[in-house]
Structure formats: C-alpha cells, structure tokens
Design a protein that fits this description.
The chain is α/β, with parallel strands linked by helices. It has helices at about 75-80, 100-105, 140-150, 175-190, 205-210, 235-245, 260-270, 290-300, 305-310, 315-320; strands at about 5-10, 10-15, 20, 25-30, 30-35, 45-50, 55, 60-65, 85-90, 115-120, 155-160, 190-195, 215, 250, 340-350, 355-370, 375-379. It folds into two domains: about 5-55 and about 330-379, Urease, subunit C, domain 1, CATH 2.30.40; about 60-320, Metal-dependent hydrolases (TIM Barrel, Alpha-Beta Barrel). Strands 8-9-10-11-12-13-14 form a seven-stranded parallel β-sheet. Strands 3-2-7-15-16-17 form a six-stranded mixed β-sheet. α3 (about 140-150) packs parallel to α4 (about 175-190). The relative contact order is 0.16.
C-alpha cells in the first residue's frame, strides 16, 4: 500500500495554500503524502469518506490551560482539545519556572495532543484561585524564568503575564509583572503574551507601550477595564498603532474574556483579531466555550468567511509559533494533522462570557480528527 490513510471526497479548505476545493488527502509515515482531485482508495490501507464535509489542517489553539491535576484551571488535553479538532495547543502560562518540569513530564510528554507553552513569569504559575500567582511580587523572578526557558526551548514559546486586580495581582505588584515579563522575554529573545483585564494602570495604552512585534495581546474583546475601546466605544489609537507594528491581537474567549458588543464595535471599525483562540479551561469547557470550533462559529456569525476564520486557527498561528512548514497546512510534507468538519445550518445559541446571546445560523462540528497521519477520533 502506498498510503496509510486517505481522506476522500471532502472540500479541502487550506488557507496557507489558498485552497478551497474538492481534494483527496493522503497520509503516509505520519505526514501528508499527496493531494489530488482523485486518489484511488485501493492505494490506502484505510479510507475515510469526507464527502459533503470540510477537510482542514489540524486546528491550532494559541490559548488553553491543560496543566491537569495541578493548576486549578487545568483540563485533560486529549478529550477536550485533540478529540475536538485542536491537534496543537499552546498552554498560556499554567506553569512557571518552579512547576514547568512537572508539566512537561506528567502532561506534555504523555499526551497525544501536541502541547507547546508560554511560561508564566510567576515562578508558581497558576495554582489556586485562593492565592494568585503574584500574591508575593517576588514570584515574578526573571532569573528563574530565563533558566527554565533555556532548558526547555523546544517547548516554551514565550513569557505569559496576567494583569488583573481580582485577587490575582497584588496592589503591591502593580505593573511590575509586565515589566519583569518584558525583561525575561528580551533576555531570551522570545515574545510576551499579556492578559490585560483590569490591570493596575489607567488604560490599555500603558500596557501596549511595552509590547512589540510578535508579542500577543490575548483576550482582545473582553468587556472589562483596560480594553481596546475607549469610553466612547472607539478603538483606541494605541491599538491601531500596536497592530501596525506587529503586535498580535488574539481572542482568548475564556470564561470572562469575550464580549459580543466589544467584538461587534471593533469589527465595525475594521479591527479584526489575527488569531482565534479558546482560553479553554475547567470553568468554561462545559460552556460558554466548549471547544475551539465553537469559538470559530461565533466569528462566522460576526460575518467572517469560512476561509478567514480557519486561517486564524491554522495558517496564522502556525506562522506565529514558527512552524508554518509543518503545521497549519496540508501541503505534502507537512505533519499529518487534519480535522474533518461539518458546517451545519440551523439556529445556534451563541453565548459570550457575560451571558449575552446571539443566534447563529451555522456552526462547525468536528466529526473526525487525524493526528500524525492516523485517525484519532471518528464519529
């Protein structure tokens, strides 16, 4: 047999290749082996019928929390991410320098989901709701963070910092965690990812002054203080300037970080997120987030095309994590990750993080997942 697996009869939507057309996709030795208008099933050990469905590269979620059993946010990655189409995920700061080795050994290395990470500038990481990661400001330890990154450069993409008053950042810390995250990231030549809600500053303007090309502002459509809109509902000049210099604006839906009205106002003014992520964790996996495909459906409702939305969870995040030749595409030679999706029509109640609802007319549902050229889940 020439191929291990053949996805046959589906509509391939691969923004990296500019493809939206009927294509068969064949896999061999864990990689994409061939694309074709017709590939004979006799050439494959296993054939999966994708007729009437969408075939996409495996989805990439730039913001999840999967330090299961240690972080209070943590969920098991395989049933919540991989089984639902997100073949590659980035954990956004669940672990810090004191806890990352355990995260690697007991979660990352034993999961079928491909897991990369942002290292929390707090050496503790995100352990409990009762004690925040910066309750003691000295947890923002630049030396420890840099040393841990050097040991695990194959997995760590950058430095994560959460700026929010709600008992997570002590008033004594102020903007210190952000400054320390910047210092650590600069020392090791990596990016920062910033959670900006209700920070100890006057506005998002102050946060963005420390952000540079390639840095990621997640939760870009939250409805709290330090958001992208000013008091009059206009997109801040600092936001447009940050986008122009290459700061990445990421959705990071979460349990409290996606607001319909903010998103609608921003899109009406021509401001779109570069990436769509879920911020999937234990407090939202059963709603309002559910999975990355469900978040993508909300942007279909907001008027983005299927190709636009899928680009924001495939080709664009692959570029951001510098794996665009291996991930986010089904070009021959790429890693063999794919998802078969159904675009169902109907009425779907789409709930944001504040309980506001919109009624969508279509939604994406993963019906089969391929990881490393093998079927991980079907049906």
């Amino acid at each position: 047999m020439k191929y291990d697996l053949l996805l046959k009869g589906g509509t391939l939507v691969d923004p990296a290749q500019g493809l939206h057309a009927r294509r068969d996709v064949a896999f061999a030795d864990g990689k994409v082996a061939a694309l074709g208008e017709t590939i004979d099933s006799a050439e494959a050990r296993q054939t999966l019928d994708a007729t009437g469905r969408i075939v996409s590269p495996g989805l990439i979620d730039l913001h999840v929390h999967v330090f299961y059993g240690v972080s209070h946010f943590g969920i098991q990655p395989d049933p919540t991410c991989l089984a639902r189409g997100a073949t590659t995920v980035v954990d956004a700061g669940s672990a810090g320098a004191d806890t990352f080795p355990g995260f690697r050994k007991y979660v990352i290395e034993v999961s079928a989901t491909r897991i990369l990470a942002q290292l929390n500038i707090s050496s503790q990481g995100m352990l409990t709701r009762q004690i925040g990661e910066f309750e003691i400001p000295e947890y923002a330890d630049v030396g420890k963070a840099c040393a841990m990154i050097e040991e695990h450069r194959d997995l760590i993409l950058g430095v994560k910092v959460r700026l929010t008053k709600n008992s997570i950042v002590s008033p004594r810390s102020g903007m210190l965690p952000l400054q320390r995250a910047r210092e650590a990231a600069d020392a090791v030549g990596l990016l920062i990812m910033v959670h900006p809600q209700d920070a100890w500053c006057d506005s998002l303007d102050e946060i963005l002054t420390l952000m540079r090309q390639g840095d990621i502002l997640t939760h870009c459509f939250h409805g709290s203080r330090c958001g992208i809109l000013d008091e009059g509902g206009r997109v801040r000049d600092s936001v447009r300037a940050a986008m122009e210099r290459g700061v990445i604006f990421d959705v990071g839906h979460g349990a409290g970080s996606f607001n319909w009205k903010v998103a609608e106002h921003a899109l009406a003014q021509g401001v779109l997120p570069q990436t769509i992520s879920s911020d999937l964790h234990v407090y939202n996996v059963n709603g309002p987030v559910y999975d990355l495909a469900s978040v993508v459906g909300k942007f279909l409702h907001l008027g983005l095309s299927l190709d636009e939305t899928l680009a924001k969870v495939t080709s664009v995040p692959a570029q951001i994590i510098h794996l665009e030749d291996q991930l986010g595409t089904l070009i021959p030679g790429a890693w063999g990750d794919a998802v078969v999706l159904e675009l169902r029509q109907g009425e779907f109640q789409l709930v944001d993080s504040q309980g506001q609802t919109r009624t969508g007319k279509q939604q994406l549902f993963p019906v089969a997942v391929v990881k490393g050229g093998k079927v991980y889940r079907q049906g």
